[in-house]
Amino acid sequence: MELVKLATEWAKAEVFSTRFFILFALLFLIASIGFWQLGKTDLARAYIIPTLVAGLLLMIIGVGLVYTNTNRVTEFETAYQQDATAFIASEFDRIEATLKEYNTVVFKAIPILMILASLVLVFVDKPLWRAISITTIAMLIVILLIDGTAHARIQVFKAQLEEVSKKEKL
């Protein structure tokens, strides 16, 4: 039963963490409204659409992850009661898949996208492209911050899961 407790604590921590996607999404949306209402220069007006798009993307990510992890919390105990060994195996498989995804997307693709956005910022002197580049970099930094902590948390969860499954001999 300690396994269910560990998994539940991890999922609840994920729900808390992914709510930051929603918080930052709201900040980007507020910024978009601010640029729309108060923007006087071409550069300020150019931020309206990029910050709106970034806010919507972060909102989609946040709501999707909160929904997924909230549902996962309720399913842990049922899955464990049905077949504890299968539950552990599925958790290890999910953790491995998630760690591979983090290594590919978060720690390789996102930095490459940030470099590309930085290059556009340096070499293109149009207000819209500057706004897109800066907003993209800001959004990717938010994703790196949140997913970086999630990556560390899932590694700890994996180690705890291995330790507890050895103790319970599952």
What descriptive keywords fit this protein?
170 residues, mainly alpha, 93% helix, elongated
How much of the polypeptide forms β-strand, as a percent range?
Answer: under 5%
Q: How many beta strands in the DSSP annotation? A: 0
The proportion of residues forming helix, as a percent range, comes to: over 70%
Characterize the largest beta sheet: strand count, sense, and whether it forms a barrel.
none
Instruction: Give the SSE string.
Output: HHHHH
Overall average pLDDT: 93
What overall geometry do the principal axes of the alpha carbons give? Answer: elongated
What's the N-to-C terminus distance?
12 Å
Structural class call reads mainly alpha
Explain what the structure shows.
The chain has one domain (2-167). The chain is built from five helices and no strands. The protein is mainly α and 170 residues long. Helix content is 93%, strand content 0%. The longest helix has 41 residues, at 127-167. Helix 4 (84-123) runs antiparallel to helix 5 (127-167).
